[in-house]
Amino acid sequence: MSADRFDLNLLRVFDAIFEDRNLALAGKRLNLSQSAISHALGRMRDVLGDDLFVRTGRGMEPTVRALAMATQVRGALAQIKAALGVDRFDPSVAQRTFVLAANDYITALLLGRLSQRLRAEAPLVDLVVRPSTRLDLAGQIDVGRIDVAIGIFADMPRRFRSIDVWEQTDVLLLNREHPAADRPLTREDLLTYPLVAVSQGGEEEGAVSGFIVERGLARQSEMFDREALNRGFAEQADVPRVRMAVAHSLAIPALLRHSDMLALVPSSLGRELARNGELTLRATPYACPDVTVRAVWHERNDGDPGLQWLRQQLIDVSRQVRCR
């Protein structure tokens, strides 16, 4: 096949079908009839010698060849738009949907504030928030289904870019009526009282040392530093045990109510949950290093004016979050 003879408009059709998994929705996205989309798909199949998409009960599922093409096709289309300067972004009039990935407490702390800013400065811009705990997070960023992922990442492949959002450490939360609420917590307290922490993926899902690695991206699955906890008790016979692990950090207040449990949580979350006075915030009785929450995106989106604007908004509103 000669690239010179390939109709580049077919790439837009391919990208739309890959995104929507539905010919009618792809046609609506491109202002084309379903028959025109079907015809374009047929031409691509003839030229490339592959079905590209197979109709199933879940929609048009991509073949292995289509999956291999998707990231490069989307990147090429983005570069063409950038070269032509057709992606100017005026937030006051722009109609666009951004898709972000974040866990529940980052959504509550950061994206709630971002939503308020969008209401004032970008009234026609919509946000869709996906869980950052999904096992194919890196794959979703690769194919463009997630614009920005926010979280703690140990390793990032070279195809991804990132900016720092804030720094945090681990702290302990306890009910204000807890027997230890009126003093600093000790190592003995962590051995005496049950611990509860947030874990959004364990060894059964491939997590190693609190991180899940997928397509080169290592993201935090346990919302605390287990290695720091173990190091803090290395010279003692016993090590604190996390007796309860929950997937939703915003369940912590209910779990601590009328309980002697201690919750091990990120400091950004701990300060937010302690604001109403029901819970008391305490430092850990062992050294716990700072970690950085980052916003991550694919390198092909570096020049997208809309995403450049969104990333700046994330940085601006992150300053309102008190983390330490």
Automatic annotation (TrEMBL):
Keywords: DNA-binding, Transcription, Transcription regulation
PROSITE patterns, A to Z: HTH_LYSR
Matching CDD domains: PBP2_PnbR (cd08469)
First and last residue of the signal peptide: none
GO molecular function, one term: DNA-binding transcription factor activity
Domain of life: Bacteria
Start and end residues of each HTH lysR-type domain: 6-63
Gene3D superfamilies hit by this protein: Periplasmic binding protein-like II (3.40.190.10), Winged helix-like DNA-binding domain superfamily/Winged helix DNA-binding domain (1.10.10.10)
A Pfam family of this chain: HTH_1
Alphabetized SUPFAM superfamilies for the sequence: Periplasmic binding protein-like II (SSF53850), Winged helix' DNA-binding domain (SSF46785)
Similarity comment: Belongs to the LysR transcriptional regulatory family.
Protein name: LysR family transcriptional regulator
